[in-house]
Amino acid sequence: MTNLLRREFLVGAAASAAALGVAATAKAASFGNPDRPAEGSINAKSPTSLDDPGPQNPALANQFPSMQDPPPTDVNGQPLFWASFNNAPKRIQNGGWAREVTQADFAISKDIAGVNMRLAQNGIRELHWHQQAEWAIMLDGTCRVTVLDEEGRPQVGDVQNGDLWYFPAGLPHSLQGLGSTGAEFLLAFDNGMSTEFNTLLVTDWFAHTPPDVLSMNFGVPADAFKNIPLNQRWIFQGTDPGPLAADQRAVRSPKGAPPHPFVFPLSSMAPTRQSRGGSVHIIDSRNFNVSKTVAMARVTVKPGAMRELHWHPNADEWQYYVKGKARMTVFDTGPKATTADFKAGDIGYVRKSLGHYVQNMGNTDMVFLEIFKSDRYAEVSLSDWLRHAPPELVMQHLNISRETLVQLSNVSPNIV
Ligand code: MN
Ligand code: MN
Q: In which band, very low, low, confident or very high, does the pLDDT at 415 lie, cut at 50, 70 and 90?
């Protein structure tokens, strides 16, 4: 819209408001309240503009202050980028449960499908495989993972709260909760349409293979399999697997062990970057070699701090909120700007290269994960860009003084 058209539009809005007997409020755009036409409750001057007399569920609605009352800098109309495990149905079986948010539930989430799973003490997620890669982070307890790579090299490992695993597409694996805590974890599949409820299961294949074929394949009498389960197990209650070293000895192959581990001890890694406002741990194929299709930043934001204005040039960002209270605004062409609120167990999504920032809205640390379908983490910082563009050029764009320009965050701090 040219300046001229824009002026005309504003005049027209003022005139019709006056004609309706409503206080004429349209005025020149102001800092923090850009008119176009104006959005936000600050611009709703008529006495009943803000009324909301229709059906309500206050317990739910009150969780979303930024959606109920967006800032006047927002221009709404983007696809919903908020989802949650908190309202995802659990599939519960003896031994544990899982719930998921896939692209079928969350239309924008093209790159990643998320699963939240709990395995009881000795609970087993059965031997299985699938067409997509599986990335995971432990949220509680301890888990034993087993995997076999395509060269026939096995790995068995135990992971603790905060640790990761990554299984490339098609590699067979299993999971088991250990000790009195069992295990809870987050899975990210590198395809939004993946589902944890539809994987290739060893029990399913046995039950759907003729006995004589089983006999021929394994070189034992068909009778040996007469007690196999006729229905899949998926998650089931198992028994104590014993010490890790014994399992590792038992699976040993003449082909050796995989050259790069499929688990990553994030719980003992020092932050990649740290500042007064918080810290960031970045894990991708550069430090977790096998993780060729998923990169992750775990971000801790202190009270009163903010994950700075930035974007990611290489991939969409799928977020998981681990703890605390957050508010994120996403900026797109249009212009569009949408603000949403997040709490523990919620999911956010930002399409590739769209600008965004995440504020800690609580009085405790806020922790969230930024997950990307990519072999590497990549980011562009707005303040870094403006600090490394010719000063005169930037000053002409923003009408800011040289003193202000010099003060723009000098190094990319990630968290301010
Ligand atoms: Mn799996
Ligand atoms: Mn980001």
A: low
Whole-number Å distance, alpha carbon 123 to ligand 1 midpoint, is 15
Using one digit for the tens of pLDDT, what is the confidence trace for 196-228? 999 999 999 999 999 999 999 999 999 999 999
If you measure from the C-alpha of residue 218 to the centroid of ligand 1, how many angstroms do you get, rounded to a whole number?
25
3-state secondary structure of 175: strand
Structure confidence by residue, pLDDT tens digits, 375-399: 999 999 999 999 999 999 999 999 9
Which one of 2.60.120.10, 3.10.50.40, 3.40.50.2000, 2.40.128.120 gives the CATH number of domain 88-264? Answer: 2.60.120.10
Q: Is the pLDDT of residue 416 over 90?
A: no
Superfamily of structural domain 269-381: Jelly Rolls (2.60.120.10)
The gap from C-alpha 397 to its chain's centroid, in whole angstroms, comes to 34
C-alpha 236 to ligand 2 mean position (Å): 37
pTM above 0.85, yes or no: yes
Cα dihedral: 345, 349, 355, 356 (round 10): -10
Using one digit for the tens of pLDDT, what is the confidence trace for 336-385? 999 999 999 999 999 999 999 999 999 999 999 999 999 999 999 999 99
Compute the distance from residue 207 Cα to the ligand 1 centre, in Å: 20
Q: How far is it, in rounded angstroms, from Cα 108 to Cα 117? A: 22
What amino acid is encoded at 131 in this protein?
Q
Q: How many angstroms does the Cα of residue 87 sit away from the middle of ligand 2?
A: 24
pLDDT digits (tens, 9 = 90+) for 260-283: 999 999 999 999 999 889 999 999
- φ, ψ of residue 303 to 5 degrees: the values are -55, 135
* Nearest ligand to the C-alpha atom of residue 175: 1
* Nearest ligand (C-alpha, residue 371): 2
Q: Which ligand is nearest to the CA of 372?
A: 2
Contact assessment for residue 341 and residue 67, using Cβ atoms and an 8 Å cutoff: yes
* Catalytic residue positions, numbered: 370
**Residue holding tokens 């196999």?**
228
| Tokens linked to 151 | 């060269």
Give me the residue spans of the domains in the chain: 3-42+57-68, 88-264, 269-381
Residues in the chain: 416
- The H or E element spanning position 218 is helix 211-218
88-264 shares its CATH topology with 269-381: yes
Ligand 1 centroid to 83 CA: how many Å?
Answer: 22
Backbone angles phi, psi at 386, to 5 degrees: -70, -30
State the pLDDT at residue 156: 98
Ligand nearest to the CA of 100: 1
